[in-house]
Design brief:
The chain is an all-alpha fold. Helix content is 79%, strand content 0%.
Length: 116
């Protein structure tokens, strides 16, 4: 994960598992878009220290995702919700087809939630 959106999503799911100091640095880099120099100056550490901390935090959160798959599950649920919404808006479906389709999507959602 390299994109700013991916980094933000990682932090949204796993940021609370970082230390307060790690969260402050990571938020400054990802959400406040401060430069490494600005963050280093504000926190009394080197630019290299900031860079290393951000990379270490990212690797730590990626390791959490590899084990827990929370983002993967969220994205699957999000896709299923969108599919269900589209299904419900399809005026050409009979009640039975709609009921069967939504039941199928609900079962898939429950499976996604309960995966270990």
């Amino acid at each position: 994960m390299d994109g700013i959106i991916d980094l933000g999503r990682l932090y949204d799911f796993y940021g609370e598992l970082l230390t307060v100091h790690q969260r402050q640095i990571y938020e400054a880099a990802v959400y406040e878009d401060l430069s490494l120099n600005e963050i280093a100056k504000e926190n009394g550490i080197t630019k290299q220290g900031v860079h290393d901390l951000i990379r270490r935090c990212t690797r730590t959160m990626e390791a959490y995702e590899e084990k827990l798959h929370m983002i993967e599950r969220f994205q699957r649920l999000q896709a299923l919700c969108e599919e269900t919404s589209t299904l419900c808006q399809d005026a050409s479906l009979s009640r039975e087809e709609l009921a069967a389709g939504t039941e199928e999507k609900l079962q898939l959602m429950l499976q996604a939630i309960s995966q270990d």
